[in-house]
Design goal:
This protein has 2 domains: about 5-180 and about 440-500, Rossmann fold, CATH 3.40.50; about 275-440, Rossmann fold. The chain has 21 helices and 13 strands. Helix 6 (about 140-150) links the parallel strand 4 (about 130-135) and strand 5. The chain is an alpha/beta fold and about 500 residues long. The chain has a 7-stranded mixed sheet, with helices on both faces.
């Protein structure tokens, strides 16, 4: 029998491209949930580049007025061991980050009812062996991922380890799906200097920063996007997509103008009050802020989203003689920075120094005593400078002996004291590098996404755009090398799961 493969395809076309190239390698039945805007939906309705046996359009199945089925939702939570309100509260469209619409409890529960029933019916009908996709971004694809996992469907998710230009295929978000152990790998006895030299070519900070500078950076493309949206678009998503509720053209324009003004004001505040030089005259612990609204906080760390409170907790738990250095993420620029009131609250916390986002992490790693991060790459990067670290969530590099995973705030003080005494060994880091190299492959996902935004979305300024078959063909051909790699690696992963009898 043919394998059945289901894809989650949203405004990120990575796995549409993978499906296109994968169908040339294997004979499978392809299914897809399509999560896109109305203009993009038109392309998927007409396309023949990927042969899907059946597709479901997510927003076609989510009505504004559907009744709530509380009994069904209660049974659903028990059936799959899923906390629906955890997903809902951390959905940026539902709470805290939506500038255009306030969802009622009833509206949220109605949406949850509809999507739970949709996902169950899709899986009942398709009966997929595999689920392939990019890391989950919002509550809806996270929910689908959790249901697939609970049903025993084999999941292949494209994750990015903390090496630049690398990818890995895994069943678990943010971690490697392997039985390999660090002790399995031999070392050559490289020094920390040699390891740092090696990592210069795989500097994830540099890659992410460069990609961030290219995203939505062109004023010319911004003007083109504004003309498309304000003059040419009918803005039909306003009525059909709950993610667009309240987004009238006037309100969007008003918001963008005000947000741009606030961004400049916030940048001046940051420039005036945040440190740009690290003297190294005082001992300090380093805490890099995560980017608000991103999956790493909302999805991967659902109970750790209040970073101001996290700063307070760390300061409360530090031994006397140390300061806490808190650095703003350069990528927060894409979110127009944080409210000045939030920065003022951080600055008011005793024993805290705020560091300017332009300061390179290398300067901090060289002089700090310990790195504490919720889920970012800083803990991994710190090891190259012989500095221990602490993390609050499961992440791929937490297998390093110098990285301590914190399970409870109650143990934070003891954990900080222990971590400050932890020695980092070059051999462990060398083994981890070998571990990553074996369990990942070379691929430039960031460039692929930048290419997509430049090709279709006015450099990232507008998502709801008309897409022609020819333009998609051009995109697939221009990025052929990347899609070839991804398709081949997904094919190999599927083959491995079949051969090991992990798929029925």
């Amino acid at each position: 029998m043919k394998d059945k493969v289901i894809f989650w395809i949203d405004q990120d076309f990575t796995y549409y491209g993978v499906a296109n190239y994968l169908q040339k390698k294997i004979d499978c039945d392809f299914f897809a949930i399509i999560d896109v805007t109305n203009k993009v939906k038109k392309f998927f309705k007409e396309q023949k580049l990927v042969e899907f046996k059946k597709t479901w359009y997510y927003f076609d199945n989510i009505s504004r007025k559907e009744e709530i089925d509380l009994e069904y939702l209660q049974n659903f939570e028990k059936k799959y061991d899923i906390n629906l309100w955890e997903l809902a509260i951390n959905e940026r469209m539902f709470y805290n980050y939506n500038h255009f619409y306030n969802f009622s409890d009833e509206e949220i529960l109605s949406i949850l009812t509809q999507e739970c029933k949709l996902f169950e019916s899709v899986l009942d009908e398709a009966k997929p062996d595999f689920f392939l996709g990019t890391p989950v971004k919002q509550h809806k694809d996270s929910l689908f991922y959790k249901i697939c996992k609970a049903r025993g469907i084999k999941i292949i998710i494209l994750e990015q380890p903390k090496f630049a230009y690398h990818g890995t295929l895994t069943n678990e978000l943010q971690t490697f799906d392997t039985t390999d152990k660090l002790s399995d790998f031999q070392i050559k006895g490289k020094s920390f200097g040699e390891l740092r030299d090696f990592m210069k070519s795989f500097d994830a900070y540099k890659q992410i920063n460069n990609a961030g500078k290219k995203f939505a950076s062109s004023n010319t493309e911004k003007i083109k996007a504004a003309i498309d949206f304000l003059l040419l678009s009918k803005n039909t998503n306003l009525k059909t997509h709950y993610t667009y509720f309240g987004r009238s053209k006037f309100r969007v324009l008003k918001h963008e103008l005000i947000a741009s003004l606030k961004k400049r004001i916030r940048e001046k505040f940051i420039g005036k009050h945040f440190l740009k030089n690290i003297s190294g005259k005082e001992k300090f612990i380093y805490f890099p802020l995560g980017v608000d609204e991103e999956r790493t906080l909302l999805i991967d760390s659902p109970f750790l989203t209040n970073q101001i409170e996290m700063i307070r907790n760390i300061v409360k738990s530090m031994p006397v003689g140390y300061k806490l250095y808190v650095k703003e993420a350069p990528s927060q620029r894409l979110r127009k920075w944080r409210k000045i009131s939030e920065y003022k609250e951080m600055l008011k916390i005793p024993n805290v120094r705020m560091i300017h986002p332009s300061v390179h992490p290398k300067q901090i790693y060289e002089k700090c005593s310990l790195v504490i991060t919720i889920v970012g790459s800083a803990g991994f990067e710190a090891a190259f400078y012989e500095k221990p670290s602490m993390v609050f969530t499961d992440i791929n590099y937490s297998i390093l002996p110098s990285v301590m995973k914190i399970d409870s705030i109650d143990t934070l003080a003891d954990s900080i004291n222990k971590s400050l005494q932890t020695k980092v060994f070059a051999g462990d880091l060398e083994r981890y590098i070998s571990f990553v190299e074996k369990n990942s492959f070379i691929v430039d996902i960031y460039s692929l996404r930048v290419n997509q935004h430049n090709h279709f979305h006015y450099g990232g300024h507008l998502i709801d755009v008309e897409i022609s078959i020819e333009k998609m063909k051009e995109f697939l051909e221009q990025n052929k090398e990347t899609f070839d790699i991804l398709a081949e690696k997904n094919f190999e992963r599927m083959k491995f799961l079949r051969q090991t009898n992990l798929v029925k």
